Amino acid sequence: MRQRRIKDLDSKIEAFRQYCIDSPGEYKGRWREEFAGSRPFAIEIGCGKGQFITRMSERHPDWMFLGFEGHRSVALHALEKERETGSENVRFVLQYIRSLNEIFADGEVDWIFLNFSDPWPKERHAKRRLTYGEKLKEYARVLSPGGILEFKTDNDGLFEYSLEQVLKQGCFVVEEVTRDLHVAKAPSEYVTTEYEDKFSAAGKSINFMRLKKA
Known about the structure:
Blueprint: H1 9-14, H2 31-36, E1 41-45, H3 51-59, E2 64-68, H4 72-85, E3 90-93, E4 109-115, H5 133-142, E5 143-153, H6 156-169, E6 172-178, H7 181-184, H8 194-201, E7 207-213
Parallel strand pairs: 1-2, 1-4, 2-3, 4-5
Antiparallel strand pairs: 5-7, 6-7
Helix pairs in contact: 3-4, 5-6
């Protein structure tokens, strides 16, 4: 979706400097020491406008959250939401990331959220999908023993592809799968994204899987 150009974007983002981490690779192997401490450490890859991660930070004040969003005009909305909530347990990386291995040491993350990722529907773009087999191996490496990966999408084709990749790679145990999350669970059991609200209101079912590091 094309985003509206925001005037003076850089200066507006600068006003939220305290919520941003500019060089995440410098923390590799030190996230516990410098950032999360003994708290559960969760990341969202592609946090968009921030509804999910900010609501999760309110629901779990004893966790530490890190959101990745490379589209800076979108990320500005997430920063604004963070200021509105006033929570101190979420930070943002305003960059696209090539590999989590460049940012996290093995076993350094407890929870990974993938919400409504780009489906990259053309077969030649399969390696760009965030649930491509090698990506799943990457997530498993940076997750702590028993760490969790949660994936949500409205795209049925991407969901079936992702489930196939999970079963093929064998680095995760499937704990839960549903093709209609909002029917399978009570509203109190999940936190929605902006896209999720839009798709659900239009009658589209939400696919969900919860995976545990094998």
